Amino acid sequence: MTSISVKQKLMLLPDQPGCYLMKNEFGKVIYVGKAKVLKNRVKSYFSGTHDGKTQRLVSEIRDFEYIVTSTEMEALVLEMNLIKKHDPRYNVMLKDDKSYPYLKITAEKQPRLLYIRKIKKDGGKYFGPFVNAYAAQETKKLLDRIFPLRKCDTMPKRVCLYYHIGQCLGPCVYDVTEQENKKMVDGIVKFLNGGYQDVKNELSEKMLEASEALNFERAKELRDQIQHIEAVMEKQKMMTADLVDRDVFGYHFDKGWMCVQVFFIRQGKVIARDISVFPFYGEANEDLLTFIGQFYLQKNHLLPKEILLPQEVDAHLVSELLQVKVLQPKKGQKKELVELATKNASLALHEKFALIEQDEARTIKAVENLGERIGIAAPYRIEAFDNSNIHGTDPVSAMVVFVDGKPYKKDYRKYKIKSVEGPDDYASMKEVVRRRYTRVLREEGELPNLILIDGGKGQISAAQDVLENELNLFIPVAGLSKDEKHRTSQLWIGDPPEMIHLARNSQEFYLLQRIQDEVHRFAISFHRKVRSKSMFESTLDSIAGIGDKRKKMLLRHFGSLKKLKEATVDEIQAAGVPKPVAELIEKAFLSNE
């Protein structure tokens, strides 16, 4: 229901472009959007009918603010920056990192050929993306044999193995001229820009010569190299007569979901495609613009020479934003490419739609059912805690967050217990709850709708005491106890706590199981790490010459006590420890065996 303050704000909205930020009851930004006309776009959320997902967004809105911009371009850029800053839960586009392999020639005085997945503005030459990561790596190995550029990250003082096997000219010791480097770089560029056919023909001739000489092992190696070239450079059918690098966008939307397909065309061939499926809450064309902006400017996909877009998208805005040639073809082969991308987007969305809808409905329904069973509003945000210690040693606690029934790992937290000595679960729980929600209040963060505690009545009472009597917070707290087989068994809630019976085959019971298993896993893994470090440091305490600085250095170098025990004096020395101290370390471990 729209509050009076929201209704008043709606009346004051301007007829100008800009961005709007929707907020929930805690003042947390839950959605960021842009609009050509703020007045029309924002009002549309509070009038008419919406699909289930958008209705959920609207039901959580308690306030909004807006920022007027001079142009649509400014609104698009501002929207992307605001999404990056606030990470709103309903702006889900491009949250999953997608990276593709590229080959890169560095812009150093002694250049290198690298296999990378992130594009940087560093003057290097980039080639890709490649559809087959393994084949791209093998192609790099092939190019390393043919063009022996420098391999080492930093120049060593003497030549390395690569020099001895003919894959480096040894610029660390020998004078490799700028002309020699340029010749090799030009060769690699030519190869990756289509000149690979000459190299392939040369390898084919050498393969026949090796076969005729009965050198079958060498012939097989050359055959594999040819196949790697084909896998990377010749796998796809020729799509265009020219050799222009271009990306082709197609999209389809239905029932609040959108699928965007991007075809990467390099050297006239479709070498890879990107498929993204996500819910959207604004206008489809507008959200596609945001997607394209994020795709290149925030995810650092390499900009091609040309981008092809469907007719209904604002091509001028994309061209201005990215400073690249943008076309909306009306006929010919380029139009067919856009239609093909659009058709694939439609097929992909309909193929995945049933599964997406089913998964969304199941998890949201489980959350809503859980709220009904325990007598609270649907707990769309759940925070769960678990303590971990062995006889009171190295006590830690962990917290996981589930949003809409799914893990929200960005907000996971780990805690070392500071104020409690010995195995006291109640005191530990009080400390962690106090630390967690004192900080949330101080930073005006988002509070949960439900807190889950690993334990029964005692742990619930401990958490409630801190929340209500110290922090004046009245958040429902429930306890999850386990049976003799360490499986989720009972749910407790209330004051005093009462057991809630949930059917073991219900979706809400499965949700609680997933949460309890996840927080337990997170706590145990953290405890093992802390305990391992503690054992590592305590073992070294008795050795002369080992202070805090060297402990940290050894832990960073070896990673575990086991690996340090197995190390030789020379290996310990290589970690930066003087030989006499390294000998003492080895002697200490030998005497303890």
Description:
There is one protein chain. Helices cover 47% and strands 19% of the residues. By secondary structure, it is an alpha+beta fold. Strands 12, 13, 14, 15, 16, 17, 18 and 19 form an eight-stranded mixed β-sheet that branches. A five-stranded mixed β-sheet has the order 9-8-7-10-11. Strands 2-1-3 form a three-stranded antiparallel β-sheet. Strand 13 and strand 14 form a beta hairpin. Helix 12 packs parallel to helix 13 (457-470).
In short:
The protein is α+β, with helices and mostly antiparallel strands and 593 residues long. It has helices at 4-11, 38-44, 52-60, 72-86, 133-146, 161-164, 178-212, 216-233, 284-298, 315-322, 332-374, 425-443, 457-470, 507-540, 548-558, 561-566, 569-574, 579-591, and strands at residues 18-23, 29-35, 63-68, 102-105, 113-116, 125-127, 246-254, 257-266, 269-279, 306-308, 325-327, 381-390, 393-403, 406-407, 413-416, 450-454, 477-482, 488-494, 497-500. Strand 13 (393-403) and strand 14 (406-407) form a beta hairpin.
Tags for this entry?
globular, coiled coil, eight-stranded mixed beta sheet, DNA excision, alpha+beta, 47% helix, 19% strand, 593 residues, 18 helices, five-stranded mixed beta sheet
Rg from Cα: 30 Å
**If you average the pLDDT, what whole number results?**
83
Principal-axis shape:
globular
Biggest sheet statistics: 8 strands, mixed
